Prior knowledge:
With about 170 residues, this protein is α+β, with helices and mostly antiparallel strands. It has one domain (about 5-170). Helices cover about 20% and strands about 30% of the residues. It has helices at about 5-20, 100-105, 140-145, 150, and strands at about 30-35, 40-45, 55-65, 70-75, 80-90, 105-110, 110-115, 120, 135, 165-170. The chain is globular. The protein starts with a helix and ends with a strand.
Amino acid sequence: MSPARLCVLMLAATVMAASGSPAIAACPQALAVYGEARSGAEIGFAGPLSEADGMQHRFSLVFAENDVTMDGVVMMAGEPDRPWGVILHDCPEGDATGAEIAACTVWQGVIYSVASTGEAGWLPVLEADHEAGDSLLLPDFGAAVMRSRAWQAGQITLLPGDVFQLKTCQE
C-alpha cells in the first residue's frame, strides 16, 4: 500500500472516530454544508452548476469568527482526473495574471469525501445530485491557511484542521 493511501486511510479512521453527529439523510453534494470544529469554519456548496460554468462545484468557505469569506472551486485535474479544489481569498476582479492568482490562492489539492464507515474516496463531481459524504478531507488545509496572507494579517485567528463534518443540507 502506498504511503499516500495509508495516510488517507488513517485520516478516514480519525474522521470516523471523531464523528459524533448523525448523518444528514440524502443531501446532494451540491447543497451540502460542512463545518470544521476547531475554527468554526464552514464550507457551503453553491448548488448545481450549468455545464457552461466549466467547474464541477463552487463553494464558499466562511470563518464566521472573523467574518472572512473565501471562494472555492472544484474542477477535474491531474493524472488520472480527480476532483481538484482551489480556495482563493481576495483575488483581483477581472483578468488577473498567474502571479496574482498564485498570491491569492490559499489552498489547492485533491478533496476527499469520507463516509461514516470510514471509506474515503474522491469528492463526487460528475453528478451534482450525488449524495454528500459525511466528512470532507482537505489534506494540509490548516497548514496552508497558516501560510496565507489572511492568517499573517490576523484576519483569521483560529487555525482550522483538515476535516469538515457534514452539518446540514441547503434547501
